[in-house]
C-alpha cells in the first residue's frame, strides 16, 4: 500500500464553522506533512510531524491546528477560517528524518479542496 | 537564498517533442533535487530526483541534467505524449531535510 488517503475530498465551510481534515497512511512512514496549495501555485509547507512530534511549524495562523494521534494518522483542525484560506490542502508522508542514505521522498495524497464562504 | 526559480511558466509541444523545463537555485547547501508531476485534482507525485554528485539521471523517458557550478538543473521528457500534460514542479532540500522548496511550476501541454 503506497497510498496517502485524505478525507473529505471537498469541504465547504463558513467562517464560524469548525471542521477537521483527515489523513491516513499505512506505509510505516514516521514523518507526515500538511501543505497548502493555491490554484496555479506550488505547495507551501505548513506543518511537519516527525515521530508524532511537531517538528516544523511554518508560522501558520492559529486558526489551523494540527494533530498527530498516532504514526498513521494526521488531522488538521480548522476554526474561524477566512475566505483567503480557500485552497487545496495536501497531506504527505515520508520515511522519516533518520532514514539515512535516502532523501525524503514525499508521497502526497489527492488533497482536500476547501472553500471558505 | 531559499528560492528555486523555474522556467518556462507554460509550455506547449507536439506529441513526440522534447519539452525542457529549467530550474535554478542559490543555496549551495541544497543536496537533493526532485521533480514532481501534478495532474488536476491530484496531489504531486515524485517523478525523478537527483543529487549534486551526479550530472545526469535517466528514468524511462525522463532525464534530469544537473550543472552544479551553474546551480541549475533541468528536466527533459523524451518522446512526449498527451498523457504527460500536467504541471511540473522542481524542488530542492538539504541535509535529508523535510523542508522542500518548490519552484513555481510549469504547465505542460502535449498536443496529439
Provide structural commentary.
The complex is a heterodimer of chains A (117) and B (112). Chain A is mainly β and 117 residues long. Chain A contains no helices and eleven strands. Chain A has strands spanning 4-7, 10-13, 18-25, 31-37, 44-50, 53-57, 64-70, 73-79, 87-94, 107-108, 112-116. In chain A, strands 2, 4, 5, 6, 9, 10 and 11 form a seven-stranded mixed β-sheet that branches. Chain A has a four-stranded antiparallel β-sheet with strand order 1-3-8-7, with no helix packed on it. Helix content of chain B is 0%, strand content 52%. Chain B contains no helices and eleven strands. Chain B has strands at 4-7, 10-14, 20-25, 33-38, 45-50, 56-59, 62-67, 72-77, 86-92, 101-102, 106-111. In chain B, the strands form two sheets. In chain B, strands 2, 4, 5, 9, 10 and 11 form a six-stranded mixed β-sheet that branches. Chain B has a five-stranded antiparallel β-sheet with strand order 1-3-8-7-6, with no helix packed on it. The radius of gyration of chain B is 13 Å and the shape is globular. The chains are: A mainly beta (117), B mainly beta (112). At the A-B interface, strand 5, strand 9 and strand 10 of A face strand 5 of B.
